[in-house]
Inverse folding.
């Protein structure tokens, strides 16, 4: 899954930023991921300074921030950032958290708003990833029984 690859990349870059250092196989992983997301020579957006290309994807995710807790659609993923649609207003530089659920894993990415365009009643927002992401493993202690909270989440 693309989100897991971006998670691995951001984690390894975070280790470098912390000064922990990387093993040889981790350095090879970074090189392979950067090579996979390298821009093509005819990509006009790369001339404006973007380091990586983004891949199209379609996932429902949760965006959290100051007075933000909305379900949005993740439409583009890359090691440098995300693009979401059907999003609330996110000011340039405003920090948000993107929560991506994948089976028993929950990926949490910190990002800040870079650009925003009208998208009908909502906005299409470009987000630059910042810091190290977090991956939570969900474990059920007992069998879950459907309740009112599940119905509310399903209706959203």
């Amino acid at each position: 899954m693309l989100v897991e690859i971006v998670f691995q990349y951001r984690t390894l870059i975070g280790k470098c930023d912390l000064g922990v250092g990387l093993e040889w196989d981790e350095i090879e992983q970074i090189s392979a991921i950067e090579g996979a997301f390298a821009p093509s020579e005819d990509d006009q957006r790369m001339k404006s300074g973007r380091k990586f290309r983004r891949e199209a994807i379609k996932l429902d995710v949760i965006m959290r921030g100051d007075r933000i807790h909305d379900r949005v659609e993740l439409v583009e993923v890359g090691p440098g950032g995300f693009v979401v649609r059907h999003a609330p207003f996110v000011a340039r530089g405003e920090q948000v958290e993107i929560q991506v659920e994948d089976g028993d894993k929950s990926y949490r990415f910190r990002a800040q708003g870079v650009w925003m365009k009208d998208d009908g009643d909502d906005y299409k927002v470009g987000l630059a990833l910042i810091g190290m992401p977090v991956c939570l493993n969900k474990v059920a202690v007992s069998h879950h029984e459907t309740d009112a909270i599940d119905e509310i989440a399903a209706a959203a």
